[in-house]
Amino acid sequence: MQNEEFYHVFEVFSKRNHKSDFQHQFSLLAPNHEMALVMAQENFMRREPVVDIWVVKRSDITKLKPEDKKALERLDNKEYRLTKGYGYLKKKWRKYEQQVLDEKEIMSWGGDQRGPNRNAAGSDSK
Question: What ranges does the record give for the region Disordered, renumbered to this chain (predicted)?
Fold first, then answer.
């Protein structure tokens, strides 16, 4: 079991440009942080441009224990605080638009029955 003590699992995160967020890319085995960083850099220098790399030893990452995850559950009913988005607005706007009168309909109320094929005198031109 000497290999388990010598090599450690590292998680590699990269950032493609200065405005993007870090994203997890892969895991690797290395004897220490320095070698893990060199291995991560070698991998990215051959594949894609990045502006920054983070290498984190997996054992240094803290996660919640199963019994602690219960603390994440909401104790009260405050669903009004959750953002559902504005997807319903499109349907609501469509319904509103169907109720709005258009210009042609309003103009038809004026009693002008000539239509588009009639001349100003009101007689048919043939």
Answer: 107-126
Q: Which two tokens stand for residue 104?
A: 């042609």
For residue 97, being part of any structural domain is answered with: no
Q: Say if 52 falls within a structural domain.
A: yes
Cα separation, 2 vs 33, in Å, equals 18
Count of the separate structural domains present in the chain? 1
Tokens linked to 105: 């309909």
Residue 12 forms part of a structural domain: yes
| Residue 1 confidence class, pLDDT cut points 50, 70, 90 | very low
Domain assignment of residue 119, yes or no: no
**pLDDT tens for each residue of 49-83:** 889 999 999 999 998 888 888 777 766 666 766 77
Domain housing 20: 2-60
